[in-house]
Each structure stands twice: as structure tokens, then as C-alpha cells.
Design brief:
This protein has 328 residues and is α/β, with parallel strands linked by helices. It is built from 10 helices and 8 strands. Helix 2 crosses helix 10 and helix 5 packs parallel to helix 7.
């Protein structure tokens, strides 16, 4: 692993840019794994694409770019498509994919407390425990040839409110996520990547808020601390592959130019004046702030990464997996 893992441009790292791995040859990661993903918009591979695609959107990034979980799936020789997609009646319809993550999903906080998708789509997203339950009801168990990605908690942090009253909400979500991870491990998963909450205070939403993101930063730290404690208490810490997105994002923001960006966390790649509802879900090249904003900006909207930031994060995750001896 690179000595300075947050500076990914200096690490090389890298996943293939396509899933064109031919049969009989090793994928970029050196090992074939089927990726299964649970979480929220940060990992959503297209739950809302049937509707968002009408304006060139489909994922919570600078469309048509991919999110990190798709990049990771390609690195290990496969692809990742949505397990459910929304239909014209705004109902979730089961598909054949293994991408269970859905934009708007929480771990434990009721969706009706706050939902930026409500006006556009409605409250249809599954919380993470329901995503896992849906997978198990369909497939029965996990297996050693799968790589299970879990990244959740950001929406619980965003909906928790302000400290100190927000603390119990965040603690409940972190404890619940550890229980879900225990369920995944207990049902046969041997390669489980658990990503902590990034420093949401460093998002454009955070830095433009009245306190400069201080509350969101503290809540992100609290969630991560409580999650670590809950995993240790449950004896799960040594059974998962932890990925520290919080520290990683801090490092990339501090060294954004070294990582190929010209705009850090101070602006959005998706022009708010052009992008419907100011959400990256409905962002397309026609609504970019500049022609190459998907590569030069860090954030698509006020919360979600651009294509380039997703690609760098995928490389970081791949490095953490390789450090455990799985693939390269």
C-alpha cells in the first residue's frame, strides 16, 4: 500500500476503465469477485435511472459517469447493476442486479423526517437493513466468491439535527449498522468492506452552512466512533475490511490539486442554474459548470462526488482490499 494513501494520484493504484476483461484472463484486481453493494446514494448504481434518464441523469454523480462501487466491480472482473429500479408509478421494481444501495436510504432514521427526493420521487427507498433482508430472501446467503460493500450512515447524520440532541440519533444508527454487518457476516460473507462516513462537513453543503460545517463534521466523527465501538463489541472488527473515508476525504481536499482537481470543495460541477432540482441525480453534461467539470471538480452537487472523485475513491478501496492479501 502507498505510504501516503490519501494522495491517490501519487499511488498509481488503479482499476481498469472498462469491464472488457476477456474470459480466461485475470481482471485488473487479479481475482474475480462478484460485488454486492448496500447503502445510499453514494453507491447507488441506478435505482432512479428509469425516471432520471429522461434528462440525462441516473446516478448521484456527474452523469454519465460511474460511482465507486461500479468501478470496484469492474476492477474485480464484473459489473454492478441495480437490484431495484423505480417504475413510472414511482414503485420499486425488482431487477437482477446486486446493487442494492439506494439514494435517500438511511440505516435507522425514518425517511419521513427528511428526504430531499420526496418532491421528485417520493419516499420509496429501502433502509439498509431492508436491503440486506431483500438480498437474503432472494439469494439465501453470501459466499466466499463475493465482495460485499457496505457504505451507509450519511443520511442518518444529515437528518439527525444539531448537537447535542442529535447524538442519540447518530448513535442508534451506528449501532444498527453494526448489527446489519453482523447479519451479513453471519450469513456467509467472508469479504466485507465497511466504509465509514466521510467528513460531511467538508462537502459544499457543509462549508456553506452557517457554522461552516462544524456540526456535520462532529456528527460524522461521532457516527464513526460509535460504529467502531459497536463493531468491536460485537467481535466484528477483525472480520471486515475497514475503509476510512473520513480521513481519505480530508486528505484529498487538503491536496486537491495533486489529485487532479482544479476546484476543491467550494463549488459544484453541476450548475445549480441548469440542473433540475439542483441534484446530481438529474445532472448531465448539458448541465455541467464547465465542459470537463466531471474531472476537475470534486463535488457534483452539494453532497455527492464527481466521476473523478468516485474513481479515486475506488482506487483507495482497492488498495485497502489488497492490503488484506485479497487480489492486488
Amino acid at each position: 500500500m502507498c505510504a501516503s494513501s490519501v494522495l491517490l494520484s501519487a499511488c498509481g493504484g488503479g482499476h481498469g476503465g472498462s469491464s472488457s476483461t476477456s474470459s480466461g484472463s485475470s481482471p485488473a484486481g487479479g481475482i474475480n469477485l462478484q460485488v454486492v453493494s448496500f447503502g445510499d446514494s453514494l453507491s447507488d448504481v441506478g435505482t432512479y435511472a428509469p425516471i432520471a434518464g429522461a434528462v440525462g441523469g441516473g446516478r448521484f454523480t456527474t452523469n454519465p459517469g460511474q460511482v465507486w462501487s461500479q468501478d470496484v466491480a469492474q476492477y474485480y472482473g464484473g459489473s454492478l447493476t441495480a437490484a431495484f429500479t423505480i417504475d413510472v408509478g414511482h414503485e420499486l421494481s425488482p431487477q437482477n442486479g446486486f446493487g442494492y444501495a439506494e439514494g435517500g436510504s438511511t440505516v435507522a432514521t425514518p425517511a419521513n423526517q427528511y428526504d430531499f427526493l420526496t418532491d421528485v420521487i417520493g419516499n420509496v427507498e429501502m433502509p439498509v437493513n431492508q436491503q440486506v433482508g431483500s438480498y437474503l430472501s432472494t439469494h439465501g446467503s453470501f459466499n466466499a466468491n463475493q465482495l460485499v460493500l457496505v457504505w451507509a450512515g450519511a443520511n442518518d447524520v444529515l437528518r439527525a439535527g444539531t448537537l447535542p440532541s442529535a447524538a442519540p440519533v447518530v448513535q442508534t444508527a451506528a449501532t444498527a449498522l453494526a448489527q446489519v454487518i453482523g447479519q451479513i457476516v453471519g450469513n456467509g460473507a467472508t469479504h466485507v468492506v465497511v466504509v465509514n462516513v466521510p467528513n460531511i462537513g467538508l462537502s459544499p453543503k457543509g462549508v456553506t452552512s452557517a457554522d461552516g460545517g462544524a456540526n456535520l463534521t462532529q456528527l460524522s466523527q461521532l457516527f464513526n466512533s460509535d460504529l467502531n465501538t459497536a463493531l468491536q463489541t460485537a467481535g466484528l472488527q477483525g472480520k471486515v475490511i475497514p475503509v476510512d473515508a473520513y480521513t481519505w476525504l480530508n486528505g484529498v481536499v487538503a491536496n486537491y490539486q495533486s489529485n487532479g482537481f482544479t476546484v476543491s470543495n467550494t463549488a459544484q460541477a453541476c450548475d445549480p442554474n441548469k440542473t433540475p432540482d439542483d441534484t446530481s441525480l438529474l445532472c448531465s453534461p448539458a448541465t455541467y459548470a464547465t465542459a470537463n467539470a466531471d474531472q476537475t471538480y470534486m463535488f457534483a452537487d452539494d453532497l455527492h462526488p464527481t466521476t473523478h472523485l468516485h474513481a479515486l475513491f475506488a482506487q483507495f478501496v482497492e488498495q485497502q482490499i489488497a492490503a488484506t492479501g485479497l487480489g492486488h
